[in-house]
Design brief:
It is a single chain. This protein is α+β, with helices and mostly antiparallel strands and 90 residues long. The protein has a 4-stranded antiparallel sheet with strand order 2-3-1-4, covered by helices on one side. Strand 2 and strand 3 form a beta hairpin.
Length: 90
Amino acid sequence: MPKYVIEREIPGAGKLTPQQLKDISQTSCNVLDKMGSEIKWHNSFVAKDKIYCVYTAPNEAMVREHAKLGGFPANAVSEVFAEINPNTAQ
């Protein structure tokens, strides 16, 4: 299944409260439940003015549909072709 990184431009994202992050997460999960098991949210990273999310889905269109249905921006959607970490250097 293809993996995608989604860049969401959200001014002040780094200042969102735990409750706001919970609300966003619940909205995302509710949309995912309605879309079925083909799309999965793995995790997200909250930065100063952006949230980076990692999803698996059959295609980019499904990732963008999730963003549309959830009311989230999806400013960039990039397919992941390889994953590296310190163990890659071994």
